[in-house]
Amino acid sequence: MKGDSRYMVKLKDLSSFAHRKVNLVGLVVEFSVPRRTNGTDYCTVLKIIDQSQQTPEVTVNVFMRNIDGLPHLRSHKDIILLCSFKVEFYNQNYTAVYDHKASSFALFDGRITNDFTPYQVSPSFYSLHSDKHFVRRMRNWSQITPFDAGTSDYAVLLKDIKGHEFIDLVCMVLHLCEISNDKWMLFVWDGTDAPALHLEKEVGADKLPLQLEQTGLPPNVLNNFPRLGTVLRVMIDEKYEHFGNHFKIVRDWVRIRNLHCRTVSGLWEGVLTPQTKIRHLSRNDNSVVGHLRDYKERIARQGCLPSCISPTSNFLTEVPNFEQARCTTLMELLTSPLVRGMFKCVVRFLAVLPAEVECFRSPTGSYRMRITLEDPTARIHALLQSGDADEFFGDELDIDALAVKMNRLLGMSESDNTWRNPPWSVCCIGFHSSNENDLWGSRHFHICNTRLVT
Secretion signal: which residues (predicted)? Predict the structure, then answer.
């Protein structure tokens, strides 16, 4: 460690150092996902603040030949020390820009601790004795200064998203996994239900996946998901190389800016773009506290019902003898530790296989169908067969009348030849696991104790 000290420029004074190289220290409040530029470099964009200036936040552009060399934030309120960054004027603000020949940086844990060793440094960074002083002052200041997600004209809840738009989303990152070669997926949640989507009339059961990832998540992951509220899948494609090796914010809250939302196979999907920025939030952030408060109030008000349903809603189905039973979600079915059981759920009947009513019965005369069911938390396949199907359809033997009822259940409309909108229905769903040593992998679902009344 060298004994010299550095001269640190306050962020509010950057305008006095235009086109010159400066040393800065600040709290990182936002970052972009590292990606390849149009040239040979990789880049990330940081937003930093210090005691002298919190608004506007100062932009820092970092470029590296190797993506692993870019700063990779680890937690909320982490501190970055920037050495010999050039001050440029861009978009009406002064920014700090990395220079390959002269610049370097170091990242420090933002929490109060006696450890002043940076957890990441660029190759040419060297420590000075004075660094400890700057980091300590920044840590102490951050502990007494409140920071929040800020305001945004584009901030929405999942319950209010619309197709093909860019949004700002405050959410918890539940999980991150690699779904194929260097393609990653984030699983995020804000405690609300994403809107139920219309489906194309021609899309049958074989074209409706249960989830966007090719294979379902393992039980040990699903067991850590909330039982209520939509978990949005966010795609990160191969442009963001080694994303999972560097993204460390899991089981924490963030604000994702400029997240692109779209629909795929009747499911909501988020997509990271070059304009996407991520802001790490504390659990004491006003927006986080508000989300968790609303979630608890929702459970107290209506239990596990989808948010668009009231306890007095009318359905096309009924569950005789189970009207007073507590409603649960499909996520609860997927994660139940029981070997067998039955739950009452409010779901949508998305598709039936076989699709033709005249094929509902097997050659022996017994009903046997596979139904695709959906609620805001999950999709499953459930069988409807034999005595359960007899109870479901009752005495309806006329093929044409049965087709009309099923069309209503599947959301068909004579006035719309393109789209269908399955209504919400109540049903009992039984389950059993054929292997007690593999409860979830061997689990099967079936509709029971339910009657079609439309």
Answer: none
